[in-house]
Design a protein that fits this description.
Shape: rod-shaped
Structural class: alpha+beta
Strand content: 15-25%
Order of helices and strands: HHEEEEEEHHEEEEEEH
Length: about 280
């Protein structure tokens, strides 16, 4: 049975109080959220560019949920809008990372992540799956400009501690961590994996897909991979048991054959008037 990996405790929750200061009623100092878009506002993300993008996002979410299946204090989603910087009686600004994860919250169904209804908490980890179409979402002319625009947004506004991007076609992979308010590129280990302080796991490329790896360098399995591994282990154990049983049976046959030969020898000696016990 595959053991569930222990998820990290919340590390430096990303709270941006300046972004939600407008929610406070001046007279009562209590948040006044009624004039802002609701907590159950629908996500407004475009369709994914390809099946590769869908498969990659599903891999990141499903593997994390399998690893952290005993935890209920995080939220992970893909292609879901994050609403932030609200203004009274106007739609809030939003961005939709391909994958993001938030620590220190309740794991439950959400139509979107509404920062000002979630205590001002932004994602702790973001992964963007690079594509040509995402550049248009940000309103820039090229994928390179898209990377820069999103990187600055996640650095200066979201203040997300770990940010990664991955190209499913070229397999370009890069990651950053927030150091004194600025993103610094992560250095790959000897296997080319990048460490996520928030996940307490590495991310790296395996068979053209972005995957999680344990601190020991082991691949974090999908449910199907875990089932196949368990079935393979069970088959090997069954084969070993059959081999042991066959060896035991062969040993019994050999003993019986030896006894039979000895009995024939004793009988022959007695025919020759030779007492075998005197030999």
């Amino acid at each position: 049975m595959v053991q569930a990996l222990k998820a990290p405790e919340v590390i430096n929750p990303v709270i941006n109080p300046t972004d939600i200061s407008v929610l406070t009623d001046i007279e009562s100092d209590e948040p006044n959220l009624d004039i802002f878009p609701p907590a159950d506002i629908e996500s407004d993300e475009p369709e994914l560019e390809s099946s590769l993008h869908l498969q990659q996002i599903f891999l990141l979410i499903s593997c994390l949920e399998l690893c952290w299946r005993e935890r209920n204090d995080y939220f992970a989603a893909g292609n879901l809008s994050i609403y932030f910087k609200p203004e009274p009686n106007r739609p809030a600004e939003f961005r939709g990372p391909d994958f993001f994860m938030v620590l220190g919250t309740q794991k439950k169904e959400r139509k979107s992540w509404v920062v000002y209804h979630e205590g001002g908490i932004y994602p702790h980890v973001i992964v963007e799956i690079l594509s040509n179409s995402t550049a248009r979402v940000v309103g820039v002319a090229s994928p390179l400009g898209n990377r820069t625009a999103k990187k600055l947004l996640y650095q200066n506004v979201f203040r997300t501690p770990n940010y990664f991007w991955f190209d499913p076609y070229t397999l370009e992979f890069q990651g950053f961590h927030l150091v004194e308010g600025e993103y610094v590129a992560l250095e790959p280990n000897e296997k080319g994996h990048l460490w996520s302080s928030q996940l307490q796991m590495c991310l790296g490329i395996h068979e053209t897909k972005l995957r999680y790896f344990t601190t020991a360098g082991d691949l974090v399995l999908t449910a199907e991979e875990a089932w196949l591994q368990e079935r393979s282990r069970a088959d090997l154990e069954s084969q070993r048991a059959e081999q042991e049983s066959q060896r035991a049976e062969d040993a019994i046959v050999a003993v019986v054959a030896t006894i039979a030969r000895n009995e024939k020898l004793v009988a022959k000696l007695r025919e020759l008037n030779i007492n075998p016990e005197e030999l």
